[in-house]
Amino acid sequence: NDELVANNTSYKTTAEYEASVREQLKQDKEDSALASAQNEVMVAVINNSTIENISADDVQANADKIITSIKTQAETNGIEYDTYIYYYYGYDDSAAFEQYVQQVCEESQKERMVVCAIAKKENISVTDDEADKYIADYATKNSVDESTLRQNLTDVEIKYNALAEKVMNFLWTMQRRQLEQQLRLQRPQSQQRRLTQSRLKSK
């Protein structure tokens, strides 16, 4: 009821609270759809790119770092490593899991190389203020503490993530413009076909 809502939220009535929830759900759905579309564009760009000189040492170092972190988490929670990766990641074979982590790190390395190449070609960069805004927005959207995020990420990682988002937005904008251009080119053809069909019917 209204009293319960007023006492436990910043809203005065149930109607206001429900309207806010509906608006938030709508926004979350739109954000999710946009992120999915941007990710598809990025994956397509990576798959269509010729990527050379991937550093096997960097891939292995990142994989080792992730595995070490997971083992530490398992130990902190008093759980055997094999049990932990099965429970949280669905792997019952540690060797297969570690191979999966290495594959993820290799794909991440490819993405980083493509992002940096596009950023260099298109003169896309990130300022300190933009990096700060990125991490603040990320914390808000994901309901996590910004200071905790900063403890787990280096300044370089934060700046790269902000750059990657900027590059994805650029790619999505370019893709959307191409689609709009195609639609504009197709529209006169469609109109001409309808006109021709109309003339044929009238004969």
Largest sheet: none
Rounded radius of gyration (Å)? 24 Å
User: Which class of secondary structure composition applies to the elements?
Assistant: mainly alpha
- Describe the global form: extended
Low-pLDDT stretches are: none
Strand/helix succession: HHHHHHHH
Count of DSSP strands: 0
Strand content: under 5%
- Give the proportion of residues in helices: over 70%
What integer is the average pLDDT? 83
Note the total helix count.
8
What can be said about this structure in brief?
With 203 residues, this protein is mainly α. It is built from eight helices and no strands. The protein is extended.
Describe the structure.
The protein has about 200 residues and is an all-alpha fold. Helix content is about 85%, strand content about 0%. It has 8 helices and no strands.
Structure keywords:
mainly alpha, 203 residues, extended, 8 helices
Task: Summarize the SSE layout with pairings.
Layout: H1 2-8, H2 14-47, H3 56-76, H4 81-89, H5 94-121, H6 128-141, H7 146-152, H8 155-202
Helix pairs in contact: 2-8, 3-5, 5-8, 6-8
